Amino acid sequence: xxxxxxxxxxxxxxxxxxxxxxxxxxxxxxxxxxxxxxxxxxxxxxxxxxxxxxxxxxxxxxxxxxxxxxxxxxxxxxxxxxxxxxxxxxxxxxxxxxxxxxxxxxxx
Length: 108
Fold this sequence. Notes:
The chain has 108 residues and is mainly alpha-helical.
C-alpha cells in the first residue's frame, strides 16, 4: 500500500474533527524524523508504507509510549515491526481526531 494513498485519509479524518493538515504533518514528522520537505517528497514519489518507514531518518524513541487500541488491535502487542509503526501512526492520528492536545499526542 502506498503512503500517498493513506496520507489523504489521515488528513480527512483530522479535518472532519476540526484539526489541520499541518497538525497531521507535525505528528508524522515527529514520529518518523522526516522534515516537511522530505515528507512531501515521500508523498510525491508515492513510496509504499514499507519504504516510507524504512527510509525514515529516525523513528522517535517515544513511539514506545504510544499504547491503546486501533481497529481492534492493541498497538503495543503488534509483533511485526512495520505493522507496529503503521498502527502507531494510526493511533496518533486517532488521538488528534478525538481532540487530544498536540503536546500530549507528541508525548511531551
